[in-house]
Amino acid sequence: MSIKHAAIVGAGVAGLTAALSLARKGISSDIIEQAPQLGEVGAGLQLSPNATRVLDSLGVLAELERHWFEPRSISLVSGKDLRHLAEVPAGDFARKRWGHPYGVLHRSTLQQGLLRAALNQPLCHLHLGQRVQGIGADALASITDRKPDLVIGADGAWSVAREAVAGSPSVSFSGNIAWRFTIARDAAPAFLSRNGVTAYLGAKAHLVSYPLKEIDGFNLVAIAAGTRSDESWAIDADAARRAMLLEQFSGWHRDIRTILAGAEKPTFWPLYQASDGNWHNGRDTVLIGDAAHAMMPFSAQGAAMAIEDAFSLAAHVARAPMPSALASFSTERKARAARVKTRGDFNRFAYHARGPFRIGRDLVLSLRPPEKLAADLDWLYGHQIGD
């Protein structure tokens, strides 16, 4: 074992998964979080089999399954006329083909499940309400009273830990905005699928809907080109932003526009992405999750990539000296993240296609059976990290 103790900056999905993954290897950690408490953050998210495989290894999955919804399929539907275009089977099919389930849940359900596991793990120590003023083993030791062998930056897109990594990625506005809101089940229109994830596709925009068991309703995310607001995440959508939303979904089916117009308390999320860059300093500091590779949600892999990063990092540092462990981790995960980003870029083009490209997309999708579409995702959902 190359290290005995780590300091993790950030107690989100990436940070908590890293702490549990390290503990599984007998490595202790201090998790440092600036928030005074870990409450409900964000909205719904999708966990594909490549993520649930890791969560199962960490002993967290069974608890999540008590609260989540397991969709039967992931469907693509025309936002203009609600015509079914294609479908990837999930449910029992996902368990059999990829070995683990596909689930949808509230982000806070995942974070609280990870948090409970960390609090019950003697090797994990949580420090809330601690704003990091400087990145480095000595600076973090002033908070934790223990000097770490490794510093892990798991502090998201606006990472402070990047300051300790020369040539680290920079973050820029993607040109896309997400509007997130929920609808109670008894108020939801009949066309929203009660048993699956649905992506409604349109020109320069798309809308994703799926049930959330925790709220007895639906999570909806509308994504379209937009103008930058600021670096905040969840901003209340005022009248001007609502008008922009409806304008971007003009020409869509009237029932979808009715949902968007009547959304209660929608939040406005400018979407940011990270450039290429160094993920580690070659000695004792490494970035994971959005701190390393914030990406667009067009392949629904943001949380999954953070979970994979954390598990992979623990495997690397447990079996090799630090410099080579960080180098091999970075090489492995950069290739994986790049492939996922490429898939997301393709999905963005396909989902938002217009004119002849839309017609071609619909024709190609109509000719591909569900099993073939599923096979195209084997590299993504069937991915296994060496232990």
Automatic annotation (TrEMBL):
Name this protein carries in UniProt: Salicylate hydroxylase
Residues spanning the membrane: none
Domain of life according to the entry: Bacteria
InterPro entries reported for this sequence: FAD-bd, FAD-dep_Monooxygenase_BioMet, FAD/NAD-bd_sf
Keyword Oxidoreductase: yes
Pfam families: FAD_binding_3
High-level lineage: Bacteria, Pseudomonadati, Pseudomonadota, Alphaproteobacteria, Hyphomicrobiales
Residues of the FAD-binding domain: 6-341
Keywords assigned: FAD, Flavoprotein, Monooxygenase, Oxidoreductase
Organism per entry: Rhizobium rhizophilum
Essential cofactor(s): FAD
Coiled-coil ranges from the UniProt annotation: none
